[in-house]
């Protein structure tokens, strides 16, 4: 069997997959792809993923992109722990809903609002902040009375959403109005295997790099 993950530590979708890998105690061969240097546009990488994004998992020659589908695949094939991605159709539907809420609403709104700030040094657009706040309110509602985003067990949706939420916090989005989210984030930090190493350290590295760049632009 050969299993490889093409990744870069600071990348949010890569961090989500890496948190799941720790949870299921699986160690694929790690293949760094430096997107800053354009390595994701090489002929070899485009063969694996014409969409030229990381992460990409390659399982015995079978490549799969998109972090959430990678997590579905890993949970279906590489763990006996059914609670991470339940087989029951209704429970699975809730997990899927949370994953699609993340890619379609939470992360998307965060990226629309903050990527111009992060990558282009632009000022913050308050109209877009309102949309991010609305998405965080919805997440807060999902968490009402529940320990995890899809119910009472940690699932792959928690890995997906925790990288969005922690990255938002890392670039200055105020989580304090969303008390369920604040409590859940602490629960993730306390319960996800190697959270500090896999998510926090890579996120801190990303934020440091970003702040350094902002400083350069301000000079
Ligand atoms: N929805 C994708 C997003 C992947 C993504 O955009 N990755 C970034 C790094 S964080 C990337 O590879 N960017 C290079 C590109 O889009 O060409 C996922 O969850 O895997």
Descriptive notes:
Strands 2-1-3-4 form a four-stranded mixed β-sheet, with helices on one face. A hairpin with a 2-residue loop joins strand 3 (56-59) and strand 4 (62-65). It has helices at 12-23, 43-48, 67-77, 89-120, 126-142, 156-170, 179-191, 195-218; strands at residues 3-7, 29-32, 56-59, 62-65. It is globular, with a radius of gyration of 17 Å. Helix 1 (12-23) runs parallel beside helix 3 (67-77), helix 1 (12-23) crosses helix 6 (156-170) and helix 4 packs parallel to helix 6 (156-170). By secondary structure, it is of the alpha+beta class. Glutathione is lined by residues 11-13, 35, 40, 52-55, 66-68. Residues 88-214 form the GST C-terminal domain. Homodimer. Belongs to the GST superfamily.
Named once each, the bound ligands are: glutathione
Element string (H = helix, E = strand): EHEHEEHHHHHH
Q: How much of the residues is beta strand, in percent?
A: 5-15%
Main beta sheet strand tally, sense and closure:
4 strands, mixed
Task: Provide the spatial order of strands within the biggest beta sheet.
Answer: 2-1-3-4
Give the helix level as a range of percent: 55-70%
Anisotropy-based shape:
globular
Q: Termini separation (Å)?
A: 52 Å
Number of helices: 8
The rounded Rg comes to 17 Å
By helix and strand content, what is the structural category? alpha+beta
Low-confidence spans = none
- Give the total of beta strands: 4
User: Can you give the mean pLDDT?
Assistant: 96
